[in-house]
Write a structure and sequence with these properties.
- This protein is an alpha/beta fold and 188 residues long.
- The protein has a single domain, classed as Rossmann fold (3-Layer(aba) Sandwich).
- The protein contains seven helices and five strands.
- A five-stranded parallel sheet has the order 2-3-1-4-5, with helices on both faces.
- The longest helix is centred in the middle third of the chain and has 18 residues.
Length: 188
């Protein structure tokens, strides 16, 4: 049976690097979908408003969140076709709710129900790491905002009854070893 593992955290915590290394080693991975969506949204909107997360500048944040949610549900369902023992996700379905909470956006069961219906086996939360944090054209938050988002992510996953594992700071190889040791040893 396939185990689904979410790697999450605020912006700039090393998630993507970790997922790319897992993929390089032959693991099945689903990549973050928001970067491409952010790039597309920035092309459609007033460039003067691109100060933080696209949820603050898209014309219809609810529709934008629906697209993110649909994309993550599609990723979840696409894993049914895989025969791999471990499948990794760069962010999970509850991340959508965490970001909506962070930006004080209202939502209903349309967003919270999938968090209960589509369950992951493990959640690894990468903490904010000032030494590696950088802003770029798709990562628009300040480090302080990244820390606040980290807290929202932790709170949200816990609210959906996940045990959240934190990975220590360190080189990607060490973080990978720490995560795989926990998965292989059955420490839940």
């Amino acid at each position: 049976m396939t185990k689904r593992i979410v790697i999450t955290g605020g912006p700039g915590t090393g998630k993507t690097v970790l997922v790319r290394e897992l993929e390089r080693r032959g693991y099945s991975c689903f990549h973050e979908i928001i970067r491409e969506m952010t790039w597309a949204a920035k092309k459609e909107e007033d460039p003067g408003t691109h100060l933080v997360n696209p949820l603050t500048f898209v014309r219809d944040p609810l529709a934008f969140n629906r697209r993110i949610l649909r994309g993550r549900i599609d990723q979840f369902n696409d894993a049914w076709d895989l025969q791999d023992p471990l499948v990794f996700y760069d962010r999970g379905i509850p991340d959508v709710v965490a970001y909506m909470d962070y930006f004080n956006q209202e939502y209903n069961g349309e967003f919270s129900e999938p968090c209960q219906d589509f369950r992951y086996d493990h959640v690894f939360l990468l903490p904010p790491w000032r030494e590696i944090y950088t802003r770029d054209d798709e990562r628009l938050e300040s480090f302080e905002q990244a820390c606040e988002i980290h807290e929202c992510l932790h709170k949200t996953y816990r609210s959906f009854a996940y045990e959240v594992h934190t990975l220590d700071f360190g080189p990607v190889e060490e973080r990978l070893r720490q995560m795989l040791d926990r998965l292989n040893n059955g420490n839940e």
